[in-house]
Design brief:
The complex is a heterodimer. By secondary structure, chain A is mainly alpha-helical. Chain A is about 60% helix and about 10% strand. Chain A contains five helices and three strands, in the order βαααββαα. Chain A has a two-stranded antiparallel ribbon with strand order 2-3. Chain A starts with a strand and ends with a helix. The two termini of chain B are about 35 Å apart. Classes of the chains: A mainly alpha, B mainly alpha. The interface between A and B is medium-sized, with 25 and 26 residues.
Chain lengths: ~130, ~375
């Protein structure tokens, strides 16, 4: 299930990318499943094919899906397997500004841990 | 005279009944081609407009039927006059329906704007990543199976060409008998099977592009809108196959009659086109009933209130629908989308493939008679 908010400040392709990842976390999609074709998903959502394409390429660069000719976008992410060193480093880099912003806003380390736990349970409960 | 009267009577009845029911079998979140949020579908004004539309079209239908009966009872009416009436009346009903459509389209659009119906809801794009595993449209190659019959006809024609008469029928009257002929030539002899193959490939193409088109689900009512989309796709593909097979049979009968001089009985020649028409009409009613009772006023069920504080709805797509009838959305790669007023598909006019599908048959219809 994908729900994209057209009035959000977050671009559609980022929303789509995030929601596909969340679907994998929840187990709705598993390793080896294929995502719909770019044309098909764009048609279902009624959004531009470039938007869907951009999301798929982001997921590919993160090592979550693999775009196989003729077969489509296949999920290669494995939630059981530990992240690679590179993935770990990338995550750290992306999280850094958010953590900095939290600290500037007066959150302490425990608050940040709490925040992350809340987000995890929210992703899993939908 | 009597036979013609029955045909005209049934035509008027069919056209009229279809017009009357359209607002009630259309998606309930789209009223006279205007998107409205699900919590407004029972708005008294909306119901009132639909009722008025049904009552006025019903009056015109009944008046046309009564007019036809009165005309027939006057003994001095000739067949040409009756035929004229039989064509004009359904046309008038369609025109009345269309005028009313535009009137109420404008009314609803204004109501929606003044009440700011979409102001209080959050509009979202919705998709189900697994939906395509539930899609039950027929495989496209199925539409090419009747091509075997066309090829058979071509082979037969090659073998029998020398024995064919010097005049070949190219047009058939309402009684199933040929009423126009052309001098024998390869083009004339093969015109019919070739036209048939073109049509069979057209059906094949339509199914391919329908299959590729988006499965649109409304976030405001996921369950029914999903079911309606899946049924529409499934049953439209069945209906398409039915038409494919029936047209093949009709062409085969006509062509065999040509090859083996009058092998087919006159009765069958007369009944075949009528049967085709009746089956196709019955099929379209069946399609309208099967699909039209979902996510429409016939569904009956009250809309379940969302537990969220802010209600979510599908995107208000009115800006992509010219007059609520013609879809023009450059962002949407779909070639076919569900109609807004009625049951079935319409073309995305922003997609060049859509134009091809619309224009190619028209060009072929113009070109083929010139060639043959």
């Amino acid at each position: 299930m994908i729900i994209l908010d057209s009035e959000s400040n977050v671009p559609l392709y980022l929303q789509l990318r995030t929601q596909i990842m969340e679907a994998i976390v929840r187990g709705e999609l598993a390793k080896g499943d294929t995502l719909p074709s770019v044309r098909g998903l764009a048609g279902d959502l009624g959004i531009n094919m470039h938007t869907v394409n951009k999301s798929y390429h982001e997921l590919e660069s993160k090592g979550i899906i693999e775009i196989v000719p003729k077969k489509g976008a296949v999920i290669i992410a494995d939630t059981e397997k530990h992240a690679s060193k590179k993935q770990y480093e990338n995550l750290g880099e992306e999280l850094r500004p958010v953590v900095a912003e939290g600290l500037v806003c007066g959150l302490n380390e425990e608050d940040l841990h709490q925040l992350i736990s809340n987000i995890i349970s929210k992703i899993k409960e939908v | 005279m009597d036979m013609e009267f029955i045909v005209f009577f049934l035509t008027i009845l069919f056209v009229g009944a279809l017009q009357i029911f359209i607002p009630f079998i259309a998606k309930r979140s789209v009223v006279f081609g205007v998107s409205i949020p699900y919590d407004q579908v029972k708005h008294p004004q909306v119901i009132q407009y639909k009722k008025s539309y049904a009552i006025i079209t019903a009056i015109f239908t009944l008046a046309s039927l009564a007019g036809l009966i009165l005309l027939v009872q006057r003994q001095n009416i000739n067949e040409a006059q009756l035929a004229l009436v039989g064509v004009v009346f359904p046309f008038v009903i369609l025109l009345v329906g269309l005028s009313l459509y535009f009137y109420f389209h404008y009314k609803i659009a204004k109501l929606k704007q003044t009440k700011n119906w979409f102001g209080a809801v959050k509009q979202v794009h919705y998709a189900d990543l697994k939906i395509r595993s539930k899609d039950e449209m027929l495989a496209s190659f199925v539409y090419l199976i009747p091509v075997i019959i066309s090829l058979g006809l071509i082979i037969l024609t090659v073998n029998l060409y020398d024995q064919l008469p010097s005049q070949i029928p190219t047009h058939w009257g309402p009684n199933g008998q040929a009423d126009a002929f052309s001098d024998k030539s390869w083009m004339v002899a093969f015109g019919m099977p070739i036209t048939l193959i073109l049509m069979q490939f057209m059906f094949y193409g339509i199914n391919i592009f329908t299959k590729r088109s988006g499965i649109k689900i409304n976030a405001g009512n996921v369950k029914s809108s999903e079911l309606r989309q899946l049924r529409l796709r499934k049953y439209t593909s069945w209906f398409l196959l039915l038409v494919d097979v029936l047209i093949t049979l009709l062409f085969a009968i006509l062509h065999l009659n040509l090859l083996y001089e009058n092998i087919i009985s006159d009765l069958l020649m007369m009944l075949a086109p009528v049967c085709l028409l009746v089956i196709v009409l019955a099929g379209s009613v069946w399609l309208a009933v099967k699909v039209g009772r979902l996510d429409s006023d016939f569904e009956g069920k009250e809309i379940i209130e969302d537990s969220n504080s802010i209600k979510i709805e599908g995107i208000d797509e009115d800006k992509y629908w010219i007059g609520g009838l013609f879809y023009f959305n450059r962002n949407d790669p779909s070639v076919f989308v569900e109609k807004r007023f009625g049951v079935g598909f319409t073309i995305n006019f922003a997609n060049p493939i859509g134009y091809l599908i619309l224009i190619v048959p028209i060009i072929l219809i113009i070109i083929i008679p010139i060639l043959f």
